[in-house]
Amino acid sequence: MRVKDVKKVVLAYSGGLDTSVILKWLQTTYNCEVVTFTADLGQGEELGPARKKAELLGIRPENIFIDDLREEFVRDFVFPMFRANALYEGMYLLGTSIARPLIAKRQIEIAEQVGADAVCHGATGKGNDQVRFEIGYYALKPDVKVIAPWREWDLTSRTKLIEFAEQHQIPISKDKRGEAPFSVDANLLHSSSEGKVLEEPWDEPPEVVWQRTIRPEDAPDTPTEIVIEFERGDAVGINGERLSPAELLTRLNALGKENGIGRLDLVENRFVGMKSRGCYETPGGTILYVAHRAMESITLDREAAHLKDSLMPRYAELVYNGFWFSPERRMLQALVDESQHSVSGEVRLKLYKGNTIVTGRRSPNSLYSMKHVTFEEDQGAYDQTDAQGFIKLNALRLRLGAMAGRKGGTL
Amino acid sequence: MRVKDVKKVVLAYSGGLDTSVILKWLQTTYNCEVVTFTADLGQGEELGPARKKAELLGIRPENIFIDDLREEFVRDFVFPMFRANALYEGMYLLGTSIARPLIAKRQIEIAEQVGADAVCHGATGKGNDQVRFEIGYYALKPDVKVIAPWREWDLTSRTKLIEFAEQHQIPISKDKRGEAPFSVDANLLHSSSEGKVLEEPWDEPPEVVWQRTIRPEDAPDTPTEIVIEFERGDAVGINGERLSPAELLTRLNALGKENGIGRLDLVENRFVGMKSRGCYETPGGTILYVAHRAMESITLDREAAHLKDSLMPRYAELVYNGFWFSPERRMLQALVDESQHSVSGEVRLKLYKGNTIVTGRRSPNSLYSMKHVTFEEDQGAYDQTDAQGFIKLNALRLRLGAMAGRKGGTL
Amino acid sequence: MRVKDVKKVVLAYSGGLDTSVILKWLQTTYNCEVVTFTADLGQGEELGPARKKAELLGIRPENIFIDDLREEFVRDFVFPMFRANALYEGMYLLGTSIARPLIAKRQIEIAEQVGADAVCHGATGKGNDQVRFEIGYYALKPDVKVIAPWREWDLTSRTKLIEFAEQHQIPISKDKRGEAPFSVDANLLHSSSEGKVLEEPWDEPPEVVWQRTIRPEDAPDTPTEIVIEFERGDAVGINGERLSPAELLTRLNALGKENGIGRLDLVENRFVGMKSRGCYETPGGTILYVAHRAMESITLDREAAHLKDSLMPRYAELVYNGFWFSPERRMLQALVDESQHSVSGEVRLKLYKGNTIVTGRRSPNSLYSMKHVTFEEDQGAYDQTDAQGFIKLNALRLRLGAMAGRKGGTL
Amino acid sequence: MRVKDVKKVVLAYSGGLDTSVILKWLQTTYNCEVVTFTADLGQGEELGPARKKAELLGIRPENIFIDDLREEFVRDFVFPMFRANALYEGMYLLGTSIARPLIAKRQIEIAEQVGADAVCHGATGKGNDQVRFEIGYYALKPDVKVIAPWREWDLTSRTKLIEFAEQHQIPISKDKRGEAPFSVDANLLHSSSEGKVLEEPWDEPPEVVWQRTIRPEDAPDTPTEIVIEFERGDAVGINGERLSPAELLTRLNALGKENGIGRLDLVENRFVGMKSRGCYETPGGTILYVAHRAMESITLDREAAHLKDSLMPRYAELVYNGFWFSPERRMLQALVDESQHSVSGEVRLKLYKGNTIVTGRRSPNSLYSMKHVTFEEDQGAYDQTDAQGFIKLNALRLRLGAMAGRKGGTL
Predict the structure, then answer these.
(1) With CB atoms 3.0 to 4.6 Å apart as the test, which of A10, B411, C284, D328 could cross-link to C252 if both were Cys?
(2) Per mean pLDDT, which range of A138-147, B205-214, B267-276, D165-174 is the poorest?
């Protein structure tokens, strides 16, 4: 089922062993020109070595693309998603899912630029990432040829991979010789770990899995208090300092890390049909999620908020399944964005040993009316007798039902 | 807008000052026989004094009803709701909302038994509880007369209330003379505080508000590990000990309390149209929520789980708004319950300073298949080439869209 | 519960007997200045007499407002709603509901212009229209005073109304002396009839009820064929002739009328809690609904269409309940409108004795790909082997369930 | 991607040319024992010839299964679906979709009975039916081997198919030599036609396509009036005569046919990602749909009805996509069925030249209260002043929004 006649392929290239093997395998299998694309999404690795390694493997300089996409990532992908309060299966902040469409988009842009007819990624045939990459590719360039080596080749074991690397003079760093005890993905929003030692869902993950946050037990005994400022649904500052999207998330990551915030050990349902177990660390994102909900709590109309909440699972599912570049995600985004015009103001939080605790929220657009809610005399702001008619008409259909013998809402 | 010709009324009676004043006011205003009903829902107060006080206020012994409803409360109200993972506005575990229908139901049962034509509650005209009580009443006895003193009388200040009490020889305990700094509701699931000192949403709640949990900072430095056992969606045991519903929730409350778990400071949207700020403590319920989701994570089919998630906001809204006894809640419950047949097994948790951390889950009905998900050789359990067709057909409509010029899912 | 100190009130005035009585009653009861507002929404009545009658009843010329709102009505209210394919309870095209917000909006605009502090409408206390008017008023001018005579006065029978009219020299046309056999509302989108002879839902409506369409039996024996042209979700022309929104709907109404199209006899659920029976005629709207769906069928992406469909009941409920001017309706509209960019092209229809039959649709933006769907040789456009992987991964979770003993999707 | 080592296969066998070729192809390609299964689902064909032809092609008598499934089809598949008022994409009554799971179920039962390890169907690789069959197979027997000849073989043109048939002495009826002008599927619920002459969506379908209904133009000039009786959501009788499910649908089909009812010409979205055009005839189903909605209109609570309506698109999508045997369809069915307890009574209809017109509905469980809705004096059944409080509290959040500067529901 391999594609044919590939002339030039853009490879999502990390510089690591696996994608280096893929690079070589592409050259030898498809006999085509390879263009590498390496993105800084905040995964915390130097990109310099990726360039060197690509050159070493024979890629011509004009075919090596290295981009810092951190601001675009947070501004155009992470923030819109957080406006929706997206949680997959009630828990997961979608850290891996949200990065894939951006990589796909940039790969296709490069393909158009260099006249490539194919793109290639290093995701396996069992996971969600292959879907996310490829749906992105197809949605942006419907005639593109897609190469997914892990679904095609016969390098199905670590041993064979290492052998192939040795045969083709691919440098192998010492620590990559053995099998990693689990598989990792990271970007500015989160780190995920899965596989191998994590495959038994009854076993607690070993501490070594957590690389992005300290243990709550090891976090400071004193809470850290911060204030996050929002404008139209997006965080724009911390403690009075205005920050760009990526700066802000970086800052929140540091705060979350120190306070042991954002760990999640989850069994989730993959789009390809099986359950898997992942360990996620989303330190800054966890803080941002809590803060955004608190900001909305005083600035969003009730029905606006409930409508958003009712559609959130669908939005999260779309992102998880890889349909960022789809009409339905755009439609939901239009609905969500329409709701965020007044979501501005400040939220105060206490960060403490894994906890993100809201301690205050205020806004020039607040819909909270102390005059109406007060237990004190309200000067006629609210007429309590209105409640009687409200209740009676809300109950009317139930009373008519009960009169017809259907007591207590039976049918 | 007062009801007329009330002969006998069943009053939801706590024994406190407010409902004692109501009791007297009913007698003097409606000149009717008063029946008191006091329920133990786990609010943590002795019920003996309520009986004595009712007698003191002239209620005949056969008109005093005192019931321990704790098991019924947890079994028939709390547990069904937790099967749905209900969270109002993404955060609130509905501790007050879920108790009201049970009180309403029992009041109506007593009314039928003693031949009363009216019922009365002590909720104010600004809140949700009046709606929850009265919708319950009407759904169960459509011709019942409803008396809501706070919407009717002119005892609109603390001073007038105290005056009325003094005039009518209602005993006033010392600490009730002054105004409480906030208003409290409690039952086995949670305690809530609102009003007065809590009315400014930018101010952090004073520590005195939290009565049901210790501060996370004061919780033990060592995590507590527990295992919760589930059968068909309901928790049935802790650490190998089988417990009744109320026993189990009581035990979880103790565990949560000690570990500083379950505090929530929230601005929420009331059904009557305004925003309010509440401070909630749901120690056991918070643990139960996390555990139930973890149990479902390995036992529920993906689409079953997603369907539940998509309807959860609606279910929570119904409970919050007081529509427990409604056809639509029953329909959603039927859907939810249908999903829980296999939600059995064990979840292991670590409780630590406000955190409820899942560390393991297992089930005889597990749908997690290590054979399929493994990074190791899977013996053909999963054919990676299937993913290609899966992706291509999922992408087909997007490719057709892009070919028609709508790149990236534009419309 | 009457509002106090009304200085100037804007009355939605039809010129008929009922609103003339209201006009006089306002003057005598509130002793306030009355401003009349009469709108042409295509109800098919002359507006001249309304002006004369208002003058006769002592309204000063500068206080008489008469507006032709037909184009605004169709362009800004009917068309946006039809983009959503809104049907209340699966059947009703919302002809009355959609007109109310526009009347409310214009009344408030006039109130602002003339410095009125109150508005008044002639809807009864049992129906939906009072809700629709008043929610509109409050959403646009939160401090407005609302007068709803039918909920306030004691003119509770036809006899008393006539008496009041006679006392106050209000002219009564002969045919208004007796009780109308049913109540009618009409505008450019539809006519509705309800009450009196229609109150028994087992009885077929008498033919006299239908005023806007001929009987299907009386319609021509030969079908009428038309082509409707759409641009971005809105109809813009018929049979090649470009028409303004109101012109177009007028034309469709004539076509529908002649062909007996658009009658509906429905028992529906009112927002105020009871069921009612209505007989609706929406000749042009029925044609437009069918045509718009057909246009979408070739221009909308599948998931875009399904997302719209899943939210349509909510959208229709909002319009029916009177929440046109609400954040949630705006959010849903944003989602709907986002989907309509490519809904352009032509639909051919056959109109015949009550039937609206689609016979063709075409579009420059069509997503229908004959190349892909054809039963003939498709030149490799579609690879049938892709279906295998697609099915296998879609079935994987069900297979895993069945392996765990849950055959056939049991839980 | 062919399955291996097939020993015994159960083939869904119609007796027609295509499945006869498949039968032979299975024997020659897989060298396995073939078991034929032919079902009477009301498609209107004699089954005797299928048995003879199977014997002629060498199938042993004990390997020939012929079942009359009409009652099971209507009772356990069609009726549950109609309880949900399922319409795919707002229009399509799912006549083909609903038959596939029953065929799959029976095939698997036979496979278990005869010890077959494989099943085979004659659906193409472009359509929905392959998905519906195979998801059914896998959900009921997760280890079954599935053979889909049209995705595997090289008989990709009519000519090759005929050649193969001639080579293998498969009798070919004269009219099958040429290409059919379109492809047909039929059962007791509907007939569908697609492909070939129907592939251009701008062209009106030729009259020859419609085989199951007469033209509205040719239907009687006088309406036919009928009364359908319902019990708990299912139709149980017509005009006072109690009928079994299949008898009843057969009767309605005859009535629909004569009156030109149930034609639909639709462009729809397939699960496999493309749009296709189908012409459907569902005479009895169309009448049943209208009647069921009318029955619900007086017996279902408003929110029960709206909840059902909001989930209907999802239910219909599940049936269309082939997920009848899934947890999520069962969950939705539980919700739907819970709502139908009181959906009993009678609906009167007029059938006339393509129209199904409701003229009356009545029920012992009716929730329609003339006392409440009447325009006449209602004896205090409904207190109009209740409406004021109802409206004011429903409007409160919008007023608070407008006071905060967000007029008219802006955000």
Answers:
(1) C284
(2) D165-174
Q: CB distance from D56 to chain A under 8 Å?
A: no
Cα separations in angstroms, A351 against A102, A223, A296, B385:
31, 5, 20, 46
Q: How far apart are CA A53 and CA A59, in angstroms?
A: 9
Q: How far is CA B329 from CA B104, D129, D298, in A?
A: 16, 36, 20
Dist. CA D25–CA A391, nearest whole Å: 70
Subunits next to D (3 or more Cβ pairs <8 Å) are: A, B, C
Please state, rounded to an integer, the average pLDDT across all residues of chain D: 95
Do residue A391 and residue B362 have CB atoms under 8 angstroms apart? no
pLDDT one-digit tens code per residue, D310-334: 999 999 999 999 999 999 999 999 9
**Chain C contact partners (≥3 CB pairs within 8 A):** A, B, D
Is the Cα torsion angle D251, D252, D255, D260 positive or negative in sign?
negative
Residue C301 sits at the chain B interface (C-beta within 8 Å): yes
Cβ neighbours of residue C65 closer than 8 Å, sequence gap 6 or more: C10, C35, C36, C37, C38, C110
DSSP string of D254-299, one letter each residue: HHHHHTT--EEEEEEE-TTS-EEEEEEE-HHHHHHHHHHHHHHHHH
How many helical (H) and strand (E) elements, i.e. helices and strands, does chain B have? Answer: 14, 14
Inter-chain CB proximity C400 and A274 less than 8 Å: yes
CB contact under 8 Å between B275 and A367, yes or no, is yes
> Measured between alpha carbons, how far is B324 from B331 in angstroms, rounded to an integer?
11
Angle in degrees, CA D121, D125, D128, rounded to 5: 80
Condensed to tens digits (0 to 9), the pLDDT of residues C48-104 reads 899 999 999 999 999 999 999 999 999 999 999 999 999 999 999 999 999 999 999
Span of A97-111, A242-256, A382-396, C340-354 with lowest mean pLDDT: A382-396
Q: Is A18 one of the catalytic residues? A: yes
Q: How far apart are CA C106 and CA C108, in angstroms?
A: 5
Q: Name the residue among A336, A111, A322 with its Cα closest to residue B408.
A: A322
Provide the shortest C-alpha distance from residue A55 to chain B (in Å).
31
Q: Which residues of A touch B373 (CB under 8 A)?
A: 126, 199, 274-277
Q: Which of C256-260, D203-207, D370-374 has the lowest mean pLDDT?
A: D370-374
Contacts of B185 (CB under 8 A, 6+ apart): B96, B129, B191, B192
Q: Which residues of C touch D293 (CB under 8 A)?
A: 90-91
Note whether D396 contacts B274, CB cutoff 8 Å: yes
Six token digits for residue C227: 């082509």
Name the nearest CA neighbour of B101 among B70, B135, B75, B74. Answer: B135
Q: Give the span between the Cα atoms of A368 and B273, in whole angstroms.
A: 11
Residue B268, annotated ligand binder?
A: yes
Between CA B84 and CA B88, with CA B86 as vertex, the angle to 5 degrees is 160
Question: C2 at the A interface (CB within 8 A)?
Answer: no
What is the C-alpha to C-alpha distance for residues C93 and B277, in angstroms, rounded to an integer?
A: 40
| Residue in this structure with the two tokens 């299998």, named with its chain if needed | A29
- Say which DSSP state A92 is in: B
3-class state of residue B110 by DSSP: helix
Total residue count of chain A as it appears in this document: 411
Handedness of CA C289, C292, C294, C297 (dihedral sign): negative
pTM exceeds cut of 0.95: yes
Rg value, chain D, Cα: 25
Residue C1 has a pLDDT of 61
pLDDT in tens, B341-384: 999 999 999 999 999 999 999 999 999 988 888 877 787 889 89
Q: Which site among B85, B349, B384 would you substitute to test the A interface, given the most A Cβ atoms closer than 10 Å to its Cβ?
A: B384
Closest CA to D46 of D8, D72, D16, D5: D16
